[in-house]
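ok so heres the complex, two chains, lmk if somethin looks off
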Amino acid sequence: MSDKLKKVLVANRGEIAVRVLRACREEGIPSVAVFSDADRNALHVRLADEAVNIGPPPAAQSYLAGEKIIAAALRCGCDSIHPGYGFLSENGDFADAVAAAGLIFIGPPGRAMREMGDKVRARARMRAAGVPIAPGSEGAVDDLAEIRRVAAEIGLPVMIKAAAGGGGKGIRVVRDAADLGKAFEMARSEAEKAFKSGAVYVEKFLDKPRHVEIQVLADRHGHVIHLGERECSIQRRHQKIIEETPCVLVDEDMRRRMGEAAVQAAREVGYENAGTVEFLVDARRNFHFLEMNTRLQVEHPITESVTGIDIVREQLRIAAGRPLSLGQDDVTFRGHAIEARICAEDPDNAFLPAVGVIKNLDLPGGGSVRVDAGLYEGMKVDVYYDSLLAKLVVRANDRAEAIARMKRALAEFQVTGVKTNIGFLLRVLEIGDFLAGEYDTGFIERHRAELFAPPSDGAERDVALLAVTLAHELRRLRSLRAERRGGGAGGEMSAWRRAGRRED
Amino acid sequence: MRYFVRIGGKELEVDARERGRGLEVRLGDRVHAVDTAVVEAGLKYSVLVDGRSFAVSVDGDGRKLALIINGRAYQVEVEDERERAGRAIGSGGSSGGGVVESVMPGIVRRVEVEPGSRVKAGDRLLILEAMKMENEICAEMDGVVEKVHVADGQTVEGGAPLVTLKAPAEAGPAAA
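and the predicted structre for the whole thing:
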């Protein structure tokens, strides 16, 4: 095999397709984008060397239609497919089908994905490999007596979780032994419905856990390294919105131990390419294996910012069969990085996804500010896909500087035409506990009152003054336009003259 | 021109007069000099309020405005004195009831109210699945459910009527 991929098909859309296509361009590898009927105008189509329509807007008929995507790759003479995240990225059968078609799947082998996808089996393997896991049942449990025994042994509260779980489905938290029976029945029936398997297991429920994950890279030659941690505890609706590295809790020794555990986890399942091992960290800084994300992670850029390693380029090189370009000792961390996810949603309305057409877009700039986005003016934001519009990533020498830089950059990021969470993100960055680094996955719920407080009187005055100023402008603009349309030559002249004077 | 601005639950009265190149704006007992420059007509403005600089993006028709001011979003309603006078003649104003519409296409997962249900502002009316997520559709005001337009499992388009609410006591405009 040559040491460079021939042509890469990017089986995704939005910011991550743009991210991968940019890496291909920089590596000098020709690229092919795929797009649904809703995405003909999308940025990723314009940034690729070639583009193929793969069907109607619903993902099931386009971005999830594996056979169409493989056919497109073969037709375009690709030798490889990058799945991005979401869609087909963690589908082991798709990875196998890509390989069976004689193409390279830029990610782990299907077998490793399946090993990590089954939570009970993953737990058992991690335990055997010496990776710390949260206390709980040995494997799946199917009778109440066994559940009671495990709960008594590890102590309440516990979680009853679906073995095939994901997305928060089939999970019950039990704080009182009397509720075990009911919770077991509900978790089992929910798991049955959602995953066609009623298998459940019991795990200790950690109060105030922090979600800290380790990035790993593994090549085909047995080298596995880690790139440090990412702290991802700021979540709404169980989805991350702000991530940072380093984590304030993690010192050099803890980073080394977590890193070694993550490397061990990857080795245990024969992992290859980029992946992320997620841990829950309790208040006493004990860490427990949660799961492995067998793909490129949304928040990978913060790791790139502090290590200087281009993770997607490493992915392309690993997939071409090259050994890792660096060893563990070559990985160093410089400064502090934060990512904020800018989503089309309405924080004041339960974070309901928002739709619309992007009218005005101002992106932030300046030193150490990175925007990964598929955004452009005129872009339609509709309901078919994820609500993530852009990722704003900043780096600075330390955490305080990084927060200041993020606040500055968020304030410059102006989007109209669709509601976004930018104002909400700014508020998070002003909460005392966030500034002190004292937060866990319950942060947003706990600080609800401050996060959703109405504007202060001073801010309200400014808003009122600006609102009237703008309302006055818009009324003037409307009458100008009406005059221009309706009036004769004289009216038109005066309208233009007035506009000219005002718009000097 | 006198303007009435609604922000959140509050209404503020603001007076704006053209003065030279800019505006003279009075709010409460203070008068501010406002200088406005058009960056992009109807979309983007630079506003100096007594020399303080604001980068403002705007979306709206002049009455309902979405403002982005230094990154923060505000939803405001602005009515000028002529519009208010016109509205007063036209009708008694909104009674607080109305049709709750779907803001996006989706699938109705679970309707949680029925005709006659009394709801408070913020109570959940139904769950709509869209964008891979379950979204709570809540009442924006206290009221009584007059009609439910959809059923569990139904696919709806954006703008489709979901639930009609009427004000608890159809008392008239005095309460508003």
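quick notes: The two ends of chain B are 24 Å apart (CA to CA). thats all i got rn
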